[in-house]
Amino acid sequence: MNIVSFIIYCIVVTFTPGPTNIVILSSVQHHGARKTMGYVGGATVAFGLLLAASALLNRMLADIIPHILGVMQIIGSLYMLYLAYQVYTMGRTEENPRQSSGFVSGLVTQFANPKVLLFTLTVIPGYVMPYYSSPAAAFIFVMVITVIGFLAFTTWVVFGSVFKSFLQQHQRVMNSIMALFLVYSAVMVSGIL
C-alpha cells in the first residue's frame, strides 16, 4: 500500500471545497464557530458511518451502487440547490433564516453529499482492501480517515473564524459566491454538464 498516496488522496478530497465545507464557512460567518462545531460533529459522524458502511458492505455495495447512484446524484443535487438558496438568502432579513448549523444538519448534509458518497465508496476498496483483509485493519483505516475529515472540517471553521469580519463586511458578495459554488457543485454532480 502506498501510504503517501492514500494520505494525499484523503487530504485533497476532504480539505477541498465541497458542499459541507462551504456550509461550514457560511455557518461560521452567521452563527459563530462554537455553534458550527455541532454541524461539524454531525458531518464527522456521518462521514465515519459512510466509511464503515463501505468497509463492511463493499461487496454488496458494488452490486447496488450502479442502481442507486443516479438517484443519489439527483437527491444530492437538489439538496445542494436548497443549501445554495439558504446561503444566498442568509442575512437579508432582520432574522436569520433557518439554515441549520447543528448536528442533525451536518449529518443530513453528509449523507446527501455525492462527493462524500463517492469518496467513501472508493477509498476503502481502492486503498485498504487490496492490502489488508482483517476487520481490525479496516476499523483503523476508517478511524484515520474520519479523523482526517474532522480536521478538514475544523480547518474550515478556523478559516471562517479568522476571516469572519472580512466575510461579514462583504456578506452579500460572499453569500452569493458561496451559493454559486453550491449551484456549480449541484450541476456537476447531476451530470447535466
UniProtKB/TrEMBL annotation:
Keyword annotations: Cell membrane, Membrane, Transmembrane, Transmembrane helix
Native organism: Paenibacillus phytohabitans
Name of the protein in question: LysE family translocator
Lineage of origin: Bacteria, Bacillati, Bacillota, Bacilli, Bacillales
InterPro entries xref list: LeuE-type
Pfam families referenced in this protein's UniProt entry, alphabetically: LysE (PF01810)
Main location as per UniProt: membrane
Membrane-spanning residues: 6-25, 37-58, 64-82, 103-124, 136-161, 173-192
Membrane topology: Multi-pass membrane protein
Cellular localisation: Cell membrane
